[in-house]
């Protein structure tokens, strides 16, 4: 075992060539480029020398949204037409190399935003948060206006969803240099290809929806004859036309806006004052009284999307699955997103596959690899997979490992993995610093049990394909990546994210020259995978879970005890449930410590592993958030609460505190009860089995 | 093993004394009599010589409904007062012995029917079905009327729920001699104490609700601080006052009714023509223009109800549970319902407990015994238990065995158990006829696989405590009882059901003199339990499941293919799913046959057993019937369909066919898709594991 892990540390050398191969052409979901990557994955996983035991494709008919290549979306100002915006509104990003010239580069667009031709005076709505529109609405009539917003602070679709109730008829969204280029105005000398910064014409594409999975088939795998809701019933997408634009175009619009100056925290990096809009432009602007018109031709299409699946059969417990996945589809060339992760996955499978084919190794448990399709449109491939195989995966999955963007930049490590692995893996560019040392230096927290340790975030969102595994199936999940030092840059994310500049050239020059960080992630993820697949006892610590629950509880007690008491709701059951959980976890830990597991009966060890494996499952409650597709985990579900605590209670409490309505306080009470019951129920699974 | 089973066959001799003890006083849920049975169960299960490893009580605060002992419910006619009905409306059943004299005999009432004092002209509404009110409404204005209905044909609560939309303001319900006493007029010479027939003053009590579990805490175990919905939000209970009465009182009312004669199939066993009511009485009746008044004083109370739990710890797989349960609460003395079952459970635990205490036997798997509280009010104790321990029970339960009323009468056997056991158990009163032979003689079916075999019904309803186990948790369940020959009597159920005559005297004279049938059930249930707890391989046959699915499919194809096709819904995915299931089941069976399990690794056997144990779990879908509490099993859920087929599809199809609405056809399509997906998902759990 240890020697095999030693092997893993040395052999990841194919990462650059994987990346070159994966990023040759744009491979947006269901395009010819996507099919090319399907074939490539299959070839690799079916390789007789380095492939897996078995690999195949699985297809789903899913609802996607595309611009019309023959009639591109347009943004125009008044009668000036496309030339209205400084230098002309760009339908495509500026070409700096052959990659941007590829005819298959998709025009920047807001997937799932409706087609339409709204025309109205422009206002600047900051990040498109509810509070932003509320502020605008105090002095402006937003009816019939177009809102320009910057990325960040609010979900993509939400910027339009928040706008529509005020009568806003169209939304523009751009990335302010403040948020991506460390505040520089970022002219072409300072940005890619001269640095990692976003060029002025760069546009972040994206899926504008708030639910994940195929939007027409919630809870059902999208097959030929599957029931589909009508498109009119889709919720969580922009109700009004929306278009993302580059910041050079945004600059030309925002700096001409009239009206009062926006609040200071709304100001971005442009060398002008961001005004709210009159609505519309300054009287002194060349745009004068012009209105802004969006011509959006997006259309929905049901398309065939593939997952590529591969397995290594376990030798001792083939019916226990460790799942490792990443998506395959990109918006354009996707060198970082997702190919940095796919390269890592291919290296992990190559190295493990060779050991299997040579008869040198076979894991105790089975390993399933998933190369998901159509993630960019809303985690669709992974969500459909979990719907189709719900029972089997629920019953047997030990953990899900997600490595999407494996390297965001040139510095430290984050994720959700056992500390033991990290001590063995060296940090890139240093033979002496382990990932553990580097991690604890850059991102740590103080644990009541362990003192200062590497910090691990919680997977509370739906940012990548782990969502269906943790939130819908309740499978213990982790998301691993190597990221940059946030004290050195304030970039929201690597600046080429979802643009036509996320290419091999960009990645190999500015994200990870020499692919050493890729290698570190491959070593880390490979080690985590092997440990999960091979350990006699699953490497999960239920007392750490208790620590997280106690941290959530402390916050909940601080924030809610008094307010709940006013409405005769006692928070005691929650306190008591967490206490019971802690005590059950401690007993199980003690029992494990007291056991000589290597000499125990196989069924005794299996029993303990089942307790550990199924712990996250015990937090699922399908009645908790019936309106939120795929969110059933009462501890890690998404929440609007600003502070980390139990999501359902937090959201219900805040809603009730705001509305004061009896029915909202009742919902807060219901959330408290179901949460306490889930925690107690989970505790019961850790207690002595009979 | 076999010798231990031999022991089981001979030793059940304490059945009469158990029954005497359990039926000494009325033990309605949460009364002093109930507490007495709690103490008795605890004493028995904690007995040092014949008890279990451990026994304890678990309490829930549940919403019950009682009449007011100080102000009994009344039914009066016009100004004539209580004397209005022949001989006076009886507040209590006639006393034939000391049992009926017990002051703790609860007045007959309709639990959960609201208090109120409606007064109106009487109509006869047959069984209170929707079609019955529809028929009445064609010639009568039902506004402001009181409807008298007979038991049968429709759920208790539903008779009032169906009535209210027509303006009916109160409902009476009685048991017609046609339905319980084989059509005899049943005067006092012919009925109990002279026979098993219901005396003229006998009244069937009951819970008048359509959902099971505590009505104030759906999906939440009813603890001290648990969130409770407001009483106004309870659904599925009578919206109008309702009262059950004896057939002597019903006779006095119905035979005086005016108006047109009721249809022939509405006519009961009274020696008069059943008229519909004018509304009201015949002009020639002494009642004349009188109205009928109900004075109902029922009130809801939150009461502390106990389950008594006991366990025998498994030796090899303590984390696998075989659960055996019955309720403990009765309406009055409950000799048959539930004490015939509780007597059997106590004998099973005494015999197994002694073997455990003497060190002669310990099961491979753990056995959990549950003596449920408040079943009569809606399966409350068992439902709360499954809510509280949802995760633990879902993960580990092999099967649930329910023995409620163990003996309904003097003839054959029905249930849901392995054929192998039955060959060993002799039928009562015969040393040569096995239960198997007797069963196949009286209740058989032709299986495509096996030819003529004993028939086993499906647990599609919520008639006893198996409901939460099969419908909510998806645990394979069985309900065992010995019942009478339905060719010899047309009684809906044994005639003392839920009356003050369901006493030891009745049971030992008319249901099972000598308790030989009780013994047969104890032997059968004990054998089933031991086989489930001890077999290396779980005694489940997944190909038999395929046979049931194929029978349902054949019916669905016959009834729905054409109608669905008209609405462009293909039934092919369902056909294909059942086919895949059959093939996966056949492969697993073959694999089992090809294995020498006794010499296989323990983990291999555990893996197969997990596949078998979790098969029913794969049919759960919490999105299938979101409005029906606790029904998540897409194969065995209740259905209004007249023919046995997939419940969700059947109900949705019938609704759509009736309404013709697009949204109803969409729901039919959704049901078809989720059903197909569940069957396919279940098939995937039977396939080779990787």
Structural write-up:
The structure is a homodimer of 690-residue chains. By secondary structure, the first copy, chain A, is an alpha/beta fold. Chain A contains 21 helices and 19 strands. Chain A has three domains: 298 residues, 3-Layer(aba) Sandwich (Aminopeptidase), CATH 3.40.630.10; 230 residues, Glucose Oxidase, domain 1 (3-Layer(bba) Sandwich); 145 residues, Transcription Elongation Factor S-II, Chain A, CATH 1.20.930. Helix content of chain A is 36%, strand content 14%. In chain A, the strands form six sheets. Chain A has a six-stranded mixed β-sheet, sandwiched between helices. A four-stranded parallel β-sheet of chain A has the order 5-6-7-9, sandwiched between helices. Chain A has a three-stranded antiparallel β-sheet with strand order 2-10-4, with no helix packed on it. The longest helix of chain A is centred in the last third of the chain and has 25 residues. The first copy, chain A, is globular, with a radius of gyration of 26 Å. At the A-B interface, strand 12, helix 11, helix 19 and helix 21 of A face strand 12, helix 11, helix 19 and helix 21 of B.
